[in-house]
Amino acid sequence: MCRIPRIALGTIQKKVDLQPLLAALLKALERADRIAQLFSSQSCFRSAESFSRWGGMRQRYLDSWLMSPAMCRQSFCLGARGCDLSIVFGQFATELESELPGGSLERLCEWLELPRIVVLDVGESRHCYFPKIPEMTCGVILLGVRSIEDRVYWQTYLESHFGVRLMGTLAATAAELSAWQQEIERDGRNRWVEPFADQMTAGLNWNLFSEIATKVEPLDPADDEWTFLERSSNVNVAIAYDDAFNCYFPDTLDLLEMQGARLHDFSPLRGEGLPDLCDLVLVGCGQPERFAEKLSGNHCMKQALREHVNRGGRLYAEGGGLAYTCQSLECEAGQFPMAGLLPAKARWQTGESHPVEIRLDRANWLADIQSSILGYRSTSWSIEPQTGLQYYCDDPQFRFDIVGYRGVLGSRMLLHFASQPRMMQNLLRPVREVEC
């Protein structure tokens, strides 16, 4: 049994961006010598996910759409080891949306027995429609409260209308949080975190926060969901990791190591070659559009990747990694030649991630024919195929979600391999003779 202090932190207002608030919360906890672990309630990436710079541990992911209850409990217990507090964050469904697409924060609250804390921006709400607080809410954190009088008003309102406790107030509004987040995504600066952490330290009722987080029942991590995987101690995996490519699911990497794979990182931005004796290359999601010229100019790395594929090596790339493996990448700064491993052109556009499920009409080294694959499609990249590009789903809606050429597979879907163990096993196996 695992006794883990934990909460669910969510919003019911789409305009509220939790990332800056979480960054400041981690910083405030760090000042108190407390280590927090963040879990996103959906297994998809977004830009500027860099919470580790402000305290806590590397963000991890849970997903009720991809995972079974047992797998969620086990992933949660494994990821929460060594920390003082675990925070599962996301968006609660509103009264107009019984359930949001993809992973559900409400369902995770049920599976993991999470106390629910709601973040609300009150702004001009005193004289307007006030959103309905979800059932079983333990506490509320309010944004946009700039005076003691307002705090007293909202505390009275919440307790009398909804019977929930006010855990704290912050002067920052949702609009200010959004501006701060855009600053991070634009240039990586985080000068607002310290003053916002000051607000957080002064504005939250930390005794109530701790009481809610610790007054939870132990969790049973259940049986090991991955015991059937075969160990592959002779597989060397090279992982692209630098400022351009840094979005990976930590539990997928953990599971690769647990199964005996040896992981080595390399930099498409600065490196001159791949690690020695490399069997598999992973190029994850990221922001290659911000570094397109530098990536294009690193001819040594592009040549090393081509030689790896020519020797029969495998490569899997997704999201921004898919764009890098194409012949060219088009973004606001222009069009730049890329690694040229896939006969296609990639075009960057503003987009989000959406849950999709596809069924393969052709096999590849990662999945068999008729396999059902679940993931979050990144709409930030459109693919223009050139002669020779292979696709594995005949449905026009999903045709370019997973594409390939020779030993290279590229995906617009963000795949959480730890929740799809059969494909995880295929990452560790030799290339199979299939129609590609």
Walk me through what this model shows.
The chain has 2 domains: 6-214, Rossmann fold, CATH 3.40.50.300; 236-427, Class I glutamine amidotransferase (GATase) domain (Rossmann fold, 3-Layer(aba) Sandwich), CATH 3.40.50. It is 28% helix and 25% strand. It has 12 helices and 23 strands. The chain has helices at 18-31, 69-79, 105-112, 148-161, 174-187, 193-203, 206-214, 250-258, 292-297, 299-310, 320-325, 421-427, and strands at residues 6-11, 36-40, 60-61, 85-91, 116-121, 137-143, 165-170, 236-240, 245-247, 262-266, 280-283, 285-286, 314-318, 326-331, 334-337, 342-348, 353-359, 372-378, 381-385, 390-391, 402-405, 408-411, 413-414. The chain has a 7-stranded parallel β-sheet with strand order 3-2-4-1-5-6-7, sandwiched between helices. Strands 10-8-11-13-22-21-20 form a 7-stranded mixed β-sheet. A 4-stranded mixed β-sheet has the order 15-14-16-19. Helix 1 (18-31) crosses helix 5 (174-187) and helix 1 (18-31) packs across helix 6 (193-203). The protein is globular.
Tags for this entry?
Rossmann fold, 436 residues, 7-stranded parallel β-sheet, 7-stranded mixed β-sheet, single chain, 12 helices, alpha/beta, disordered C terminus, globular
Number of strands: 23
Shape field: globular
- The CATH topology of the largest domain corresponds to Rossmann fold
Indicate the low-confidence ranges by residue numbers: 431-436
Mean pLDDT: 88
Subunit organisation of the chains = single chain
Structural class estimated from helices and strands: alpha/beta
CATH architect. name of the largest domain = 3-Layer(aba) Sandwich
SS element count, helices: 12
The CATH homologous superfamily of the largest domain is named P-loop containing nucleotide triphosphate hydrolases
Instruction: Identify the CATH class of the largest domain.
Output: Alpha Beta
Strand order of the largest sheet: 3-2-4-1-5-6-7
- Using the CA coordinates, give the radius of gyration: 23 Å
Largest sheet: 7 strands, parallel
Into which percentage range does the β-strand content fall? 25-35%
Give the fraction of residues assigned to helices.
Answer: 25-40%
> How many individual domains?
2
